[in-house]
Amino acid sequence: MLMACLKETRLSLLMPVFTLAILSKFDHDLASQSKAAFAGLSFLLFFSAEFAVIVLVAIVRFFTKVNKIIYLINFQAGPPVHLKNKFMNRLFFLIALFTGLQCTYAQRAIEDKAMIYQQERMVYKQWDRGKFEPGSGFLGLNPYYWLTWGLHPNYPDTDRRPLVAWGPQSQRLGMVGTMNGVSNGYKLEADTLRNTSLLEIANVSGAVSAADPLWILYYNKELKPVMEHSPASMLNPLAPAVRAKVLSEGLYGWYKHELEVLKERIDGARTADMDRGSRILAYHRMLQEYRVLSATWATRTANGMKSINLTGERDKVKQGQVPIQNWNPDSDVEIANQVIQSRKY
After folding, report:
1. Are 287 and 223 within 8 A, CB to CB?
2. Predicted TM-score (pTM) above 0.90
3. Number of alpha carbons in the 13 Å side-chain half-sphere of residue 118
4. What is the tens place of the pLDDT at every residue in 85-131?
């Protein structure tokens, strides 16, 4: 409790008087040795409570040692108990009185209505013309009123609250809201440009051409024989004789070379950066070229099969392996007459 009191308060100016009054009731030798010390301590306590604690503890220890020395000198067998108790009682009485004086407050609460009203009306309450302190008093004779408001007669009549509708803080908040709207507009425009740029990049970039829906749903399937062609896929559908014929005549090599060229062109159209419409037109144009090439391959393989059959029949005729049934010289004349009769021109 002593520490709390010393930290919270300061000693009043009456402390030296009370200290000297208490010491005058002590022994004259002890009082004469400590009057100056206690008087200086009382004035120091007025300025520093923490320093007072240190000095008080030191003085208590000093008086305890002095008391023991005096008792040892006067009483070799040891001090009487009642004298020792008398000294300790006086010492504790001095500490208790010192604590009581130290815990007294030397301040007085001041309530300034003028300041309170000014803070209220500037922060949250209305601008009340009747709450301007100091007032004018009886017949306007209050001098404090004229000293305070005489040089500023228009101040009470003008609402100066920062948060009033036309106040500076309200204007600042309105400006902040306006700037926030403008900033949001800029942000929306920037986001729109960003999304448009991303769409343009996706529309032009060849890196995302594989995700084109039209390629996935149609052209990928139609151009699959070109993109995945192999010797097996080209020769397995043919008969062994036709396969040998196209290999020997170089037809297979020509067809394979044309497919390689077409595949390279398709890969170039897929990886190049171009407009999506131009890429789709390139797909369609190369699909038409593949269809022409495929029809040529099918025609040549079919003609190869027919050529093989005709060669076989010719060899049979040469070798006399083809029997001629129901033939006579008159049959040729009859056939010629039928042809002449059936012609229209």
Report:
1. yes
2. no
3. 10
4. 565 566 666 666 655 555 555 567 778 888 888 888 777 677 777 77
Map tokens 């008093």 to a residue. Answer: 137
For 13-41, the pLDDT digits (tens) are 344 444 444 444 444 444 444 444 444 44
Q: DSSP assignment, residue 159?
A: -
Q: How far is Cα 30 from Cα 62, in angstroms, rounded to an integer?
A: 12
> In this structure, what token pair is assigned to residue 306?
């027919």
Distance CA 2, CA 57 (A): 12
Q: Provide the 8-state DSSP code for 1.
A: -
Residue 200 in tokens: 């343009």
Instruction: Count the alpha carbons within 13 Å of 195 in the hemisphere toward its beta carbon.
Output: 5
94 vs 145: CA distance, rounded Å: 51
Tokens read off for 162: 């920062």
Contact 100, 6 (CB under 8 A): no
Q: How far apart are CA 208 and CA 211, in angstroms?
A: 6
Q: How far is CA 210 from CA 201, 202, 216, 220, in A?
A: 14, 11, 7, 9
- Tell me if 336 sits within 8 A of 330, measured CB to CB: no
Tokens 């012609």 correspond to 343
Between CA 120 and CA 133 the distance in angstroms is: 13
